[in-house]
Structure formats: C-alpha cells, structure tokens
C-alpha cells in the first residue's frame, strides 16, 4: 500500500503543476487578456453602460444637472453574506485616475474581535469609520461576512475579494483592509496617497526583499511608468515580513487567477504554510516570476502601526493605523478606543 501522505503530496504536486501551467498561459497571453478586459469596458447596452460602468437614474442621489450626481453605479448579484454599506455614484466630471467609483473598499471578517470586551461595538465603529471615508471620496464599501465560507477566517480574504470583483465587474481596484484598522485621514484620497499612477511610481520601493529569509529576492532597482500596468498587488512589510492586513488588488483576469492560487486548499491541508501571508512569501521564494506583479510600498502609506520603529510608526497625517498583534500585550481595547476617539467622524452615518 502507498502511504496516504505520499498520495496527498503527489496529488498536491500535480495540482500545483496545473496551476502554474495555467498561470503561464496568462503570462504569455497577458496582452490578449488585457485587450479583452478593456474591450469589455467599452460595451454599451442602450445607454446603461457609461465608461464601462452600469448606471441607473436615482433621484435620491441628486437632481438632474450638468454637475450633479445623478446616477448610481449598479452592482451585480451578491453572494450570501455580502452587504453594500456605501454605493458610489457615477460622476462624469471625475478626472481622477482611477476614478473614485472604480475603487472598492472591502472588509472581509466575521465581525468578531481579538478583545472579548465590546466586540460588537468595535465592529460597528469600524463600519462607521469605513462608511465615513467611502462617502467622503465616493468609493464603494463592501462587507463580506466570511463566516459564510467553509474556510478558516485567515484564508477567507481571497474568496471574498473574488466575490467582490464579481459584484463590481468594472471596478479597477479592491482595497482589502482588516477590521482591526482605522482610517485616520478623511481628506487623503486613495488616488493622492497611492493609486494615481504618478504617485504609485514614486511610492514603489526598489531593491527591497520580499522575504526576510532571502535578501537577494526583491523588487527591481527601478520602475518605469510602463511597468505599472503589470503591478496587480500592492502591500507592505512589517517587522515579521509581508503583511496582508492592508493591500490593494487590481481587478484583472490575471489577479483573479493569482487569488485562486493564493486560496488553493492544498497548501492549507498539506501544511505547506500557516496563513495567507506565509503563502505569499512561499510564492515569492519558489515562483519568483510572480513577484513581477507585486509592488511593495512603505507601511506608512497603507498600514501604519502603533510601534516604536519609526518606519512603521503611525504619525498624524497617515491614512490608516492597524492594530495587528495587539492581543499579544492585551492592548486591543485600549488602542482601539484611543485612536477611534482621534479618528474623523460623520454624524450622518447611522447603523
């Protein structure tokens, strides 16, 4: 009899080979996929699609007029557990790149917190904080209750992102931000902070290792504007390595394939890695061709911490503060309350 573990490893190897083969098809035919993707944005259905976005008249969002908000960006079907807390409007005079209604903020969680005290209040305060920011900048804000997925919460972000891409088929970016984070700068847009191509070009870190274990495997020594279309995942590092508490995913067929690989259950069941962050480092080590699609930025851009180290320490003006690991010193409630009191509020947001 062949040992069961050997059979599992053999099946795992075959599955991984198939995934890599499929991914290589994407790499070698990337331009065709990109052209097909762009072509899908130019379709028209009796005026129901404007610049690639389904829109519908809704007087509740503003009266008809040249500079008024008159259309709500429509969304497709929702999977169970998905809730739209803010739906953006289509603004024809929006000249930003990307346009505001092309960005989705995603909260993928089960609503629970590391701190047993007042967990529900923290969840509601998190929702209010995200709605406040989405409303200020006309971004979509989507909540996915990951308890509806048959996977551990730490692995549920990827299917939640895929479900969000399905629901917003013409969005360009999805920002996945953990529940234990607060938006602190209402006036700083995602375009001005990171997503505008000119800003992103200046923000991408060069000569920076993806893994603390392999210093030679890192970002290139220079980025050009032509390289940016190839960047599909933007995230930062903390003291331990890559941190998936705050990251941006470009909504493209290639990144959908990458997300499928990132959540492949064989990696979990065969104990290749412990969590999604370790799997990303695993890909970087063993399949470095994937790293050309990953961009690293300073934690202070998208993922500041209450920490002693200056390069990751939150200071006034930073966009977000993340309380990752607060449970180690039993400081979650203290940190959340302190920074929530400091965070901007919108009195019109009610839950």
Automatic annotation (TrEMBL):
InterPro entries: Glyco_trans_34 (IPR008630), Nucleotide-diphossugar_trans (IPR029044)
Keywords linked to the UniProt accession: Glycosyltransferase, Transferase
Biological process (GO), any one: protein N-linked glycosylation
Keyword Transferase: yes
GO molecular function, one term: glycosyltransferase activity
Keyword Cell inner membrane: no
Family: Belongs to the glycosyltransferase 34 family.
Protein name per its UniProtKB record: Alpha-1,2-galactosyltransferase gmh3
Native source organism of the sequence: Schizosaccharomyces japonicus (strain yFS275 / FY16936) (Fission yeast)
